[in-house]
């Protein structure tokens, strides 16, 4: 049985890959992007099974209007995928106010506002599913990526709290946590203006990487397999709250969580000592 999906950020990367695979298997896709012309080839191939709309998720009024129109014109949307996002890298004082505002508005506020816009529709139709494309960067953190991590840790907390609130309406949630994936993520990343004080640290290394002076990060994640795993998770009757994808994501998360738990256990006596 075919289903209808609403996906943000479909012009490239995982959003594009999800759209291609869903259309190929016979589903309908409401594909949104800032550059909808990037989907012209899919529109020519699949006709009206691809519904397109121009959308910048930082424009909340536009986002609400596009969501409303998609649910109205498609009649029903079974799965909403919040995928639009990018990386902002650099030490905090290297970043401009505008860069910080844009990063938060795209990766965090945009995802929250999409959930707020779509939830009433899903509730009224008797259920559905949210899939949040997050990152293993919501469980771990690297120097030089503080604002990016702030958005990913933030969206993890948002859904951890919101998922049980909307579960009684038949709405299930999955947070997808990929590791480094062979998409154009690095090409779309933004760096703050470099300060010489950080040249020898993580931020300086990222600037040298962007300039091609040092090798890029390894990207073991296969976007085709990652997209297929995401789609398969939506086919299951019970949604996993988290979907960690990629060998690097698994390794990084298990080490970080074990270290965090060990640190908490080491402070057990102190924690109890501060009670009345």
Give a quick set of tags describing it.
Rossmann fold, two-stranded parallel ribbon
Describe this structure in words.
Keywords: Oxidoreductase. The chain is an alpha/beta fold. The chain has a single domain (4-250), classed as NAD(P)-binding Rossmann-like Domain (Rossmann fold), CATH 3.40.50. It is built from 9 helices and 9 strands. The strands form 2 sheets. Strands 3-2-1-4-6-7-9 form a 7-stranded parallel beta sheet, sandwiched between helices. Strands 5-8 form a two-stranded parallel sheet. α1 packs across α7, α3 runs parallel beside α4 (97-124) and α4 (97-124) runs parallel beside α5 (146-166).
Produce the secondary structure layout.
Layout: E1 4-7, H1 13-24, E2 28-33, H2 40-46, E3 50-54, H3 60-74, E4 79-82, E5 88-89, H4 97-124, E6 128-133, H5 146-166, E7 171-178, E8 190-191, H6 202-210, H7 223-235, E9 242-245, H8 247-266, H9 268-273
Parallel strand pairs: 1-2, 1-4, 2-3, 4-6, 5-8, 6-7, 7-9
Helix pairs in contact: 1-7, 3-4, 4-5
The count of DSSP E runs of length 2 or more, i.e. the number of strands, is 9
| Largest sheet report | 7 strands, parallel
Portion of residues in beta strands equals: 5-15%
Query: Distance N terminus to C terminus?
Result: 58 Å
Strand order of the largest sheet: 3-2-1-4-6-7-9
Supply the number of helical segments.
9
Structural class: alpha/beta
Number of domains: 1
Q: Are there runs of 5+ residues with pLDDT below 50, and where?
A: none
Please tell me how large the radius of gyration is. 20 Å
**CATH class group:** Alpha Beta
Shape type: globular
CATH architecture level-2 label? 3-Layer(aba) Sandwich
Oligomer: single chain
Overall pLDDT metric: 96
Family: Belongs to the short-chain dehydrogenases/reductases (SDR) family.
Protein name: Short-chain dehydrogenase/reductase
GO molecular function, one term: oxidoreductase activity
Pfam families: adh_short
